[in-house]
Amino acid sequence: MEDKIEEEIREFQKCLKTYGAKTFHNLLGAFLIWLFGNLVFIPLASELNWQTRVTCSLIFFAAFTLLVLRALPSLKKLIDTFSIFPARKYGVKKGLSYEDSLVLFRNSLYMASSIILYLLYFPFLTSFHSSISGIFLILLLMLILFLTLRMLPILSRKILDWLI
Amino acid sequence: MNSSEEETVGEEREGKEKIEEFGAEMYLESAKALRQVGARVALSVFAAILIWVFGELVFLPIAKGMTQEFMGYPVHSIISFIIVVALAIIVFTVFVDIRRLTSGLAGVLAYHFGKVSGEVSIETYKNYRIALDGILYVIVVSLAYLLFANYLAEIHPAIPAIVLILIVIWGIFALWRSCRAIATVIGRYTARWAEELERRIKKT
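Output (structure tokens, whole complex):
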């Protein structure tokens, strides 16, 4: 067991060395573009006419998406390997098995990052049309439901223990 | 204390002295830049705002009241064009001066971050400078656009939209370049963090 954990920590270390800077670079770029787009340029374009607003939103949306897509695979790897730390620290303490707590924390981190991603996309989507953000919200809820279903068997045992 | 420990303590002290020296130099450099360029930038910005105010409140209303045309162009379009050229010249000088200010500021930033991480290098200084340049340029260009937008719309309603779209495309590339500069610094931090992690694994 200890050997396995050590191996996983080593994997995280390797992941951090290989993908850390690249992921931070892409995410930082996406965030800067988001900030300037939503706080400076899209309000400026909105003052001119709706066509300019939509064009500017589309350009920022494309740049933001490009950077997020570049960051996503490495971010997933980082989340996968990072989740061993909270799993080891909190999950095992709460009486969960290491594998179960790993699944729990991994899926929780997926959920948190997808919610953050949706919130970042929200201003772009509403500037196109409010129904587009609605469609994406439905997709996000479906993803959350799917992730919760994965976590439910682990949590249900814990909830039953707590209730009875 | 054995000789090797003494050596490391000596090296650390030397490193700290170097950082302090770099910091003092950068503070002096930025103070010098601020003294030389600061007043000029403030005056240029003030002049640009004054031209904008006079154009918006005095010259354009007068020109719009005129029905005559000059070589087939309405007078208010010609007045707007003249004001745009004057503003462009002023903004360009501000751009040149800002570069000097950012180099000093980047030095101060490199010093403060270097104090935390324990190392300062010319490469980090250059990276901070590129990052600051990019972000400040995007901010200055978007502020300058606010000055130009109304006058450009007087010449032709499509011009401000086209200019804004061009600025947006340029802004994305400028911000990307800034991020790349910061990323090299971040990369160093993540590598150090990974090394620290390795050291802890070995200890346990």
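Chain A is about 95% helix and 0% strand.
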